[in-house]
Structure formats: C-alpha cells, structure tokens
Specification:
Low-confidence stretches: none
Mean pLDDT: 96
Largest sheet: 5 strands, mixed
Order of helices and strands: EHHHEEEEH
Number of strands: 5
Oligomer: single chain
Number of helices: 4
Length: 94
Amino acid sequence: MELLNKNLLADYMQKHADSVKPLTSWIKLIQLAQWKTPQDIKNAIRSADFLSGNRVIFNIGGNKHRLVAVVVYVSGNVYVQWIGTHAEYSKIKF
C-alpha cells in the first residue's frame, strides 16, 4: 500500500516521542501490505476498527495513540486523516 500524508505522522512523532517506534513499525506494515478488502486489514491487524467511508481506526503503541486512515483498496492508497492520543480521540466524533 502507498502511504499518503506522511508529514502528519512526522509532525506527530516529533511531539510524541513514545510514538516513534510503534508508528515506524506501523508504517513498515502498511508499506508491505496489499489489502484488497477490509477483511485483509482485520486479518493483519485484529485491533483495527472500521468506520463509514472506508475509514479505519488503528491502535498505535498499545492503544496510547489512535490513527484514522482512509483506505482506497482499488488504488492501494492509505491516507492518514488524523492521529492523536487515545484521550484526544475520545473527545472527537468520527
């Protein structure tokens, strides 16, 4: 999959040092993935949750951080829409 909006992740990692290692691992996993359906994501990442509009919620770093991405299966793109702490996520309605 091709990861889009990486600058959002880079900015976040600068502000949250504890996210660097788990986000780096997540990025590698995304770049190696070849997801064609939501079930492919669920098979690879059991904790993934799904929203409307092909959005997927990923738990990062033992659920300390949450990431919302739009997955475009046909083109193989993953667009990072939002990333924040679990506490910040709890205050937002997706």
